[in-house]
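Colleagues,

Please find the record for the two-part complex below.
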Amino acid sequence: MTSRRLAQFVVQSRWEEVPEAARHEARRSLLNVVGTALGGSGDAASRRAAATLAPFSGPAEATVIGRRERVDCLTAAFLNALAGNVFDFDDTHPETIIHPSAPVAPALFAWAERVPMTGARLLHAFVLGVEVECRLGNALSPYHYQRGWHITSTCGVFGAAAAVGHVLGLDEERMLWALGNASAQSSGLVETLGTMAKSIGVGQSARGGLLAALLARDGVEGPERPLEGPRGFLTVTGRDPDLARVTDGLGTDWEMPKNNCKPYPCGVVLNSVIDACLDLRAVRPLAPDAIRSITVSGHPLLRERADRPAVATGREAQVSAQHAVAVALLDGRAGVAEFSDARVGATDVLALRAKVEVRDAPGIPVEGARLEVVLASGETIVQEVAAARGSAARPLSDAELEAKFRALAAHGCPGFDPEPLIAALWAIEGAADAAQVIRLAAHG
Amino acid sequence: MTSRRLAQFVVQSRWEEVPEAARHEARRSLLNVVGTALGGSGDAASRRAAATLAPFSGPAEATVIGRRERVDCLTAAFLNALAGNVFDFDDTHPETIIHPSAPVAPALFAWAERVPMTGARLLHAFVLGVEVECRLGNALSPYHYQRGWHITSTCGVFGAAAAVGHVLGLDEERMLWALGNASAQSSGLVETLGTMAKSIGVGQSARGGLLAALLARDGVEGPERPLEGPRGFLTVTGRDPDLARVTDGLGTDWEMPKNNCKPYPCGVVLNSVIDACLDLRAVRPLAPDAIRSITVSGHPLLRERADRPAVATGREAQVSAQHAVAVALLDGRAGVAEFSDARVGATDVLALRAKVEVRDAPGIPVEGARLEVVLASGETIVQEVAAARGSAARPLSDAELEAKFRALAAHGCPGFDPEPLIAALWAIEGAADAAQVIRLAAHG
């Protein structure tokens, strides 16, 4: 009954029952993901996918964040999810490393431009979509990602389907079909990470989720147990999935407030590594020549996801601990510029990253990292970080989030005035028409 | 190098090197899948999905088989794949039970309406797409389907991508990206079988494959090893996938001639079961009351895929051995009408199917079946079929295929004249413009 119980929860949820902590983190996550989409809108993957899809677009009804042209809302969901996640700079659910907003928010914003909804209605559906995808991720973790599933895409399509399904007012049966139609489209492989193909999976998760809900509304029926059935999503892509994690505490224990926004545009496991480098550099700047070797130790997830000594592009560098250490120590920053193709190919970065090794230290939590720098002199310096900036213990402040938004807008959309959009996103709960908010994100 | 070798093969293939046996089976499969799409175009799943997608369609550039309206070519690929496979009456690759044509042919026909290509070019690309998807299926079988992957959808997206990539003239690198972009969209779960959600996966495989190739053309890059990489498609969805099956004998051992067209609109494992019932009925018609119990024995795949005693819809009945036995014995036929919702709910069918049990008989090949009928009198009758109609040993003749086409057209598109389309499909290799062929499939 896992699928049905989850469908029931989404159908029956009332906005008054969603706690303020979830609402506030929802606003923060929306602000963050619109910002990362503005920043990512100029990336080659975004531009190329937009060019590919443009000739097939239907009515010019929905905003493509950071761009002038308007497209049909299925295409907008795809392109905005892609742009929101392309730098891996969007929000992260720490237990699963899902990026919850990228599949869900673009599907909702796109639909809001077709059928008007209030900001509160969008925010409510957004919280529910995040709840669904993160709970599926909880049930599947850590096996699912380790096996090779790009969990943001595979679980995200269910989040988008549930969120849009809520806005559409689907009944329990149709919400179940929406989950079934999402299950038929759930995809995304870790092998694509570090390449533009990753973003195709993420774009498809938003588009597919929106489509799944619309199909269910129109009577396209799905199976009774799309999640827990013997050949359903959790069974097939999991190993002994913990079904209780999907349904226990629904409506009381929310995933939304656990969501974090990232300070650096790279895999979240690298945050603490970069913090350690920046902390070290602040107290003791080192000439690169003085460094003999660097060992980064952390939770096994760090090595699994980011032990990439040889990378050629900014995109690959986003999941390279070696690159992250090199730029953080050399540049004293780790922003979008430090993860550009140009910086990845720079001689000084190449030289320093060759000295970096990644090791498992099972005692260190996923939010932490340990840096051990051996100098040419023989001296060893150790720098530890227990919880990275942007983690639950050290969340970015609202002001830091705004600053991040401004920097992303300036990077992706030179000349764009972000202030009206920032204000509108903070105030979205009171907006009479959510479409008016996202239309402020058009540019060019 | 599995991915690269496969990409290389598709890029370098020359039409002159494709043997006539493959060409002829390709023509037969195209005829068959256009016929099943005509038949399936009126099904509720087709009508509902078409209604859902219509408001988002771009230019009216491509034919929806069996319908009057035209849609953008990504949408046409989706809808025609859905209609082609909705009855499970399309062609089958016996080793994998992939339905090869449904994902590939609609992607090619749709693209042919946007950018003109000759019929020979389409046929060549079709053969290559079938080759790619079936070879991936060979490498993954039988684990992949048993685990719960709907192999037609999961492998089909690669077939469609490779086929369109060939038409686009992608170089080796871009063909590799096309496979990578397909890998990011590969989806489809066996749990959805028997429901309309199955068809959403199949539609998406055609659309996603077409999109994957177009994205690659436009520079959306993928990983180096989307198939065999540690977190690539074969590794993640397989268990010890047999990589040699993907690349051994490329260009000499073709999958296309192994393809079969089905005589009955249901799961291919039921063909021999139905044959046995029809054979028995021909020699000894039995009153239902005279039957105490019926045991169907066969290859374990028969039980795994079709042991469904309780079904409520025609769609579910397509994978129910119990229903197939009941209608074949009662009606002496097993056509589209015998798998309708109405027939599934009929009292005489309900009564007889309750007497049917499915058992494994590992000695029986997947093409065969054994029927054991115990009469109220105590007498036992055994009827065996070694190879079903439509199997490699007993392929439908070209004339039988045409008859099937006419019956499907009459079912799905009353008043449609199938003859010009049948003639054009047989003659497709000589067609100057493949789009002219598929445009004959519009109706209404």
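Chain B touches chain A through 64 residues (CB under 8 Å).

Comments are welcome before we finalize the supplementary table.
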